[in-house]
Specification:
With 490 residues, the chain is α+β, with helices and mostly antiparallel strands. Helix content is 53%, strand content 16%. The two termini are 59 Å apart. About 6% of the residues have low confidence.
C-alpha cells in the first residue's frame, strides 16, 4: 500500500482502472463459463433423460443379463438385434446395476461405468419416474455424465413394471464437453487479458488527458514559488464548471488577491515613507539648527528657540500619530480578529468622542441629538473611528462654526458647515494618505477616514460622505444593531 501511494497519480489511476476492469472481466468470464457449462450439461442431461424414457424390451433385458457370457451365447460376435437397434438410437454407455453392487454391461456400451454407493442405494429403492444425475468415470478413467433410473420392462399390452433391486445406468462421455469448456476458458482468459491490458493503457491515457490541467496548475504554482510572479494566470473555459475549472478559477482568484495585497502593501510602504519623510526632515532640520548653535557658541534667541522646540514637539506628535494610524491599518489588512468584540452602547461612545472633539475645537458649537443604539464592535476601535469623523468635521469647520451630530435608528450623521468636498474628490476620500489639495496645509496624515472605513466595514456597517445643502459636508455612519441592549449585556 505504501508503494502504491508513492506512485504518481496518473499511474495510480491507470492501475485502479485496470483493476476495476480486471474484476469486471473476471466476473463476466466466470459467469459466462458457468452458464455455458450449465447449457452443455443440460443438453447432455436431456439426451440421457430422452434415452431413459424408452422402455427396455424383454429381449434387451435378456441380452444385458447375458452380456458377461456374450462370447458363448453369440459365437459369431454379432450384436443381437435388440442391442443393434438400441445402438442405432443411442451410442452411449449402458449397463444394469444390482442392489448388491454387481453390474452387467450391454454389448453396445463402449465401456463399463464405475459404480458408486449412490447407484447401489438407488437400485435398492428405485422410484418410478425418478432418476439421479452425477459426474463419474468409466473403468478407463474417461469422464462421463451418468443417469441412474429404475430398470423397467414393457409387456405386449404396453404396460411397464419396475424390476426390483436393479437400476439402469446411462452415460455419455464428457470428453467433448470438457474440451469445449477448456477452449472457452482459454478464449475468455485471452480476451480478458487483452481487455485488462487495453483498459490499463486506456486508463493511463485518460489519466494523462484528465490530469493535464493539473499539470498546468502545478507548473504555475512552481513558477510562482520560484519567481514570486503573481501575474500568472491559468486559462479557464468559462463555460466549464467541473472540478478542474473550479480549481483553476480558485487559483487565479488567489493569485489575483495576493497580487492585490502585495500592491497595497507596497503602496502602503511607499505612502508611509513619503508621509514620514516630511516630519522626519523637519525634525532633522530643527535639531541640526539647535545643535549647530550649541557647537558654534551662538545661542538662538529665546523666542526662536521656543518656536523651534514647539515645532519639534508638534512634529514628534504628528509622527507618533502617523505611526499609530499605520499600526491600526496594518492590523486591519492582516485580517486579525478584533481584540475585544462586545456589545457597545453607541450613544455612550459618541458622547466620549464628543468630549474629545470639544477640547480640540473649543471655538466651535457642537450640538448632539443621540438616541440609544447598541452594536457589536471593539470599543476602542469604534471610538477612534468616531473621533476621526468628528476631527475631520472640526478641522474643516470655520471659526465659530457649528457641527451637528445626530444618532437615530443606528445612523450617525456629522454635519459641518465648512467649504465642503468637491464632487470629483468624493471617490478618493477613503483612500490611504489621500488628502485634498486644499487640506494639505492642515495637520494630518490622510489616514483618518481610511481607518474609519475599515473599522465600520469590520462592524458590518457603511460609511459615506456627501455634500450638505447650504454648504458643508455630511458624514453618515450606519451600523447594524438594536435600540435596546441584549439581555446578556452587563
Amino acid at each position: 500500500m505504501r508503494r502504491f501511494r508513492s506512485l504518481p497519480l496518473r499511474s495510480r489511476l491507470a492501475l485502479l482502472v485496470a483493476a476495476a476492469v480486471a474484476f469486471a472481466v473476471a466476473a463476466v468470464a466466470v459467469t459466462c463459463w458457468f452458464i455455458v457449462r450449465g447449457k452443455l450439461y443440460g443438453e447432455l442431461d436431456n439426451e440421457l433423460q430422452s434415452s431413459a424414457t424408452r422402455p427396455q424390451g424383454g429381449k434387451l433385458v435378456s441380452t444385458i443379463a447375458n452380456c458377461n457370457n456374450s462370447s458363448q451365447n453369440n459365437p459369431s460376435g454379432q450384436v443381437p438385434p435388440d442391442a443393434r437397434g438400441f445402438r442405432a438410437q443411442f451410442e452411449s454407455y449402458l449397463q444394469v446395476v444390482t442392489a448388491n453392487g454387481q453390474s452387467c454391461v450391454a454389448p453396445v456400451s463402449p465401456g463399463k461405468i464405475e459404480v458408486t454407493d449412490s447407484d447401489t442405494d438407488f437400485a435398492k429403492n428405485p422410484v418410478a419416474g425418478h432418476g439421479t444425475f452425477r459426474d463419474g468415470s468409466d473403468t478407463k478413467g474417461n469422464p462421463v455424465r451418468v443417469l441412474t433410473v429404475p430398470l423397467t420392462i414393457g409387456d405386449q399390452n404396453g404396460t411397464t413394471s419396475i424390476v426390483p433391486d436393479a437400476a439402469t445406468m446411462y452415460a455419455v462421455p464428457l470428453k467433448g464437453t470438457d474440451s469445449t469448456l477448456n477452449e472457452l476458458a482459454l478464449v475468455l482468459l485471452l480476451v480478458g487479458g487483452i481487455g485488462v491490458v487495453g483498459a490499463g493503457a486506456a486508463g493511463l491515457w485518460v489519466a494523462r488527458a484528465g490530469l493535464r490541467p493539473v499539470d498546468k496548475l502545478t507548473d504555475a504554482v512552481e513558477h510562482v514559488a520560484r519567481t514570486e510572479d503573481l501575474t500568472i494566470r491559468i486559462p479557464v473555459d468559462e463555460e466549464s464548471d467541473d472540478e478542474i475549472a473550479r480549481l483553476s478559477r480558485s487559483f487565479n482568484s488567489m493569485t489575483a488577491s495576493l497580487a492585490s495585497s502585495r500592491e497595497l502593501q507596497q503602496q502602503l510602504i511607499a505612502d508611509a515613507g513619503h508621509e514620514l519623510r516630511t516630519p522626519l526632515t523637519s525634525l532633522r532640520t530643527n535639531i541640526e539648527l539647535l545643535t549647530r548653535s550649541e557647537e558654534i557658541g551662538r545661542p538662538i534667541p529665546p523666542a526662536d528657540r521656543k518656536a523651534l522646540l514647539t515645532s519639534v514637539t508638534a512634529q514628534m506628535t504628528e509622527l507618533a500619530a502617523l505611526i499609530g494610524d499605520l499600526q491600526t491599518l496594518s492590523r486591519s489588512d492582516a485580517g486579525h480578529p478584533a481584540d475585544r468584540v462586545e456589545v457597545v452602547a453607541l450613544q455612550d461612545t459618541v458622547e466620549a468622542a464628543l468630549r474629545r472633539a470639544r477640547l480640540r475645537g473649543p471655538e466651535l458649537t457642537i450640538t448632539a441629538d443621540l438616541e440609544p443604539w447598541f452594536v457589536r464592535a471593539e470599543p476602542s476601535a469604534l471610538e477612534r473611528a468616531i473621533v476621526n469623523v468628528l476631527d475631520n468635521a472640526v478641522k474643516f469647520s470655520p471659526e465659530g462654526g457649528t457641527v451637528d451630530v445626530r444618532l437615530k435608528d443606528g445612523e450617525l450623521t456629522v454635519r459641518d458647515h465648512g467649504p465642503g468636498i468637491p464632487t470629483e474628490e468624493l471617490p478618493h476620500v477613503f483612500d490611504r494618505f489621500w488628502r485634498s489639495p486644499d487640506a494639505r496645509a492642515l495637520p494630518g496624515s490622510g489616514l483618518g477616514l481610511s481607518i474609519v472605513a475599515r473599522t465600520v466595514q469590520q462592524c458590518g456597517g457603511e460609511v459615506s460622505l456627501h455634500p450638505a445643502e447650504g454648504g458643508g459636508t455630511i458624514a453618515a455612519v450606519r451600523l447594524p444593531g438594536a435600540p435596546t441592549a441584549p439581555p446578556d449585556m452587563p
